[in-house]
Design a protein that fits this description.
Layout lengths: L1 E4 L9 H8 L5 H9 L3 E3 L2 E3 L10 E4 L11 E5 L3 E6 L11 H9 L7 E2 L8 E7 L2 H12 L3 E10 L6 E11 L4 E5 L7 E12 L4 E8 L6 H8 L13 H6 L7 E8 L15 E3 L8
Amino acid sequence: MVKLKVPKKYEGKKLSLYLLKNIDNLTINLLYKTLRNKDIKINGKRINKDIVLKENDEIFVYITQNQLLPKVQKVYEDENILAVNKPVCIEVTGENSLTSAIQKEYEPMKITPMPCHRLDRNTSGLVLFAKNEKALKILEQKFKNHEIEKHYIAVVYGCPKEMKKTSEAYLFKDNKKAQVYIYDTFKKGTQKIITSYKVLEKRKDNTAVLDVKIETGKTHQIRAHLAHLGFPIIGDGKYGINKINKQFRKKYQMLTSYSLTFNFKTNSDILEYLKGKTITLPIDKKKF
């Protein structure tokens, strides 16, 4: 719940204007939904209309922090692209998403950043946005051509014997169950995947910190493939081990996208200056 008291300068102004200016990350859609549900009180009375305010009106808005847009942590920005650190529990697209938050911030500048790739809701880390249509088309093609190298930090249960490994497998996506399955050999409907990892640290509690690189970016690839290899990510409620997740008190997968490198091999037009550049999210392994 948010409690506000109207100052003199908003005397005679619309409720919507005041709330959008004074509640961080509030969207117009959420505001009107809250009005329709009569989840706003002014001076103790529930309202469902965008009324005119008076000085000293007391306003109670019954919304939670989870309903508001996420705060955006920028990692890199130039005239064409924006890289941000996505928190867990937030979708990249959709209502009250990372994209919604970014687009609201850039609206006054008449810029509409669009995501060039996705992360799972409960995977944190770097997401790359294009700030114009030309950059978006280029970057979408670069991701498709595997000309942007992505690295992740993962904490897994079990310590791999090999310090470095590249594994090939086949992934089947079950859209009805929103889940994927991994096979060692090709089966009808599967797609080939390639996942590489390097062990950064082995711990006494039978866990390990891995640097993971994916050559193919398929749905849930890292989570499902590591679990298939016998190293489930701690906190993963879908592909992990519930008993282990509870033991380590982790509700979300310990997986973060921390590095993007622009390994351009084909023409990159207005983004040629990015060739060879790496964007890195500082990682504190002690927090994993």
